[in-house]
Each structure stands twice: as C-alpha cells, then as structure tokens.
Amino acid sequence: MSAAPEPLKPLKTWSHLADRRKRPSEYDIVSTRLHYRRRDPNAPWELDPNLPMNDWYRKYCNESPLKHPDWDLFQDPDQLVYRTYNILQDGQEAYVGGLFDQFSDRGHDEMISREWIATLASFFAPARYLYHGLQMGSAYVAQMAPASTITACLYLQSADSLRWVTHTAYRTVELSKAQPDLGFGKDERKHWENDPQWQGFRRLLEEGLIVWDWAEAFVVFNLVLKPAVEEALLGVLADAARSNGDTLYSLLSQAQMRDAERHRRWASRLVEMAMTVESNKDWLRARVADWTPRAEVAIADYCKALGEAEAGARAIERMHAFQRGLGLRD
C-alpha cells in the first residue's frame, strides 16, 4: 500500500510575491503581475494567435525595441493605488474647487483686464484639446505597457489629464460670463486648428497619437510632449498671468504642476530601470533626440505668440534639463 501524499503547505503570501521575502504591501497586492497577456508571448490574448489583436500586441509590446528581463520589477515611487489616489486627489480637487469659489466670490474676473481675458481666450481655453490628447496618449500606452505597475501609473496619469480638461472647461465657462463677446465656449476649436501658438503642439500631439510601439509612445508623451506642455502652459503662461493680476490661473497651474511632478517621478524611475540594460541607452537617447526638436518648436511658437520669447527659451532649457537629468541628452 502506497503512503499517503504529504499535504501541501499553504503559502504565507501570494505565489507571485513569495520570492520577495517581505510582507507584501497593499501596493504589491493590488498592482503587481496583473497582465495575464504576458504569459505566452506568441499569443498575448488566449485566442487564435493569428488574430490582428495578437499581432498588434506581439509587434508593439512584446517585440518593442526597449527590452528588460522583467518589467514587473518596476514600482511606482509613490506606490499609489486606486484607493490612495482617490484620497490624494479628493484633497486636490477640494483645493481647486476652493480656489474657484473664493476667487468667484471676490469678483476676480472683474478685476483683471479685458485684454488679458482675451489672451486667455486664445492661449488658455483651447488647452482642453491638448489635455484631452495627453489623456488619450496616456491611455494608449497604459493599454500596451508590458507590466501592470506601469499601466497603473499611466491610467492615473490619464485621469489627471481629464481633471485638467475639467478645470479648463470650468474656467472657460466662468470667463464666458465675465466677457460674453470674446468667444469663450465657441471659438476654441478655431483657435486650436488655426492659431500659430497651437500648431507646434498640435502637430506633435497628432504625430504622437499614431506612434504604436508602447516604448516610443512613452518617450513621446512622458519625456517630450508633457514636459513641453508643462513648461509652456503651467510655467510661462502662469508667469504671464501673475504679471497681469490673474492670481487664479497662477495657483491653478501650480496645483496641476503637482500632478505633473508625480508623473515625472514615475517616468524617471522607469527610464532609470530601462537604462540598466545597455542596449536601451542609445535607443532612448535617439528617440528623445528625434522628437525633442518638435517640442522645441512648439514651445517657441507658443511663447513667441504670447510675447514671451525669452521665457520660451528658458522653458526649452528646463525641458532639456529634465531630459539631461535622466541621461537622455548631453
């Protein structure tokens, strides 16, 4: 008679976390190794391997030029999960809502010049198209990213971009009430499609939205386009607003920049991880070198039209400094 099999000993943690030899955090439990499409590189989705969807993921995720032996080792430096993100951004939205209410009660829009409000009509209100494009780009890279921890960062980034759209739309309505004849809520698409200050950003955004490789799309959005937008709209325009007595836009931009700084933190961590693979260094530097000139044009055109050409040059240098800090330019 054969001996009875030895009973299995229950694991003390989730199997995919057992090798970490530490008690898993909430972040570890709900964020790591969630992409089951990574189990079989030849058939990311458990369907016919020759389906176009499987072809797409093989080509633009699994066969991406950016390589790492285990992308699942990536961790968000802030270790945000959906629960903690909502706590964080509930406070952020309460702050922004308080700004809107306080400045409205003070009659802020009656205290700034009609000339400046007209500037906002063409340099600020159309930004909702740009922010929506950033949201779309972030969502695409999230869908294609090779690790769930990367995807989580991108989806939270995408949500932040939608919040920026909402802030811009809310402020547009307020300004339309202060100056009903300046086209707020009516002319933004015309400005976006035709005004010189937007064409560099529009070109870069539209070209970025047809980059299918997940890693190159990450480079375009997180290492080139977003930093350019942040330095121009949340930097140069905010400084101009302050000079024109528009404290509200200045404070609103600072609040949005807190989100942007968090996006830069996780993007920097991902670049740092990728750069540990020697073959990735030249590829990342080449992609940044290819896309950055378009961002330089976008910043320069926007700031020149605003009458802030010198500030635009400084904004370009700040974008370069961010990239240089990652080892992506000399």
What is the fold's blueprint, element by element?
Blueprint (H helix, E strand, L loop, with lengths): L25 H6 L20 H11 L19 H24 L2 H4 L2 H10 L3 H18 L3 H31 L9 H7 L1 H13 L5 H30 L3 H28 L3 H29 L2 H17 L5
Helix pairs in contact: 3-7, 3-11, 6-7, 6-9, 6-10, 7-11, 8-9, 9-10, 9-12, 10-11, 10-12, 10-13, 12-13
Averaging pLDDT over every residue, what do you get? 94
**CATH domain topology:** Ribonucleotide Reductase, subunit A
Please give the alpha-carbon distance between the first and last residues. 74 Å
Helix content: 55-70%
User: In CATH, what is the homologous superfamily?
Assistant: Ribonucleotide Reductase, subunit A
Index terms:
mainly alpha; Ribonucleotide Reductase, subunit A; 330 residues
Describe this entry's structure for a reader.
With 330 residues, the chain is an all-alpha fold. The chain has a single domain (75-325), classed as Ribonucleotide Reductase, subunit A (Orthogonal Bundle). The protein has 13 helices and no strands. The longest helix is centred in the middle third of the chain and has 31 residues, at 148-178. It is globular, with a radius of gyration of 23 Å. The termini are far apart. The model has no long low-confidence stretch (mean pLDDT 94).
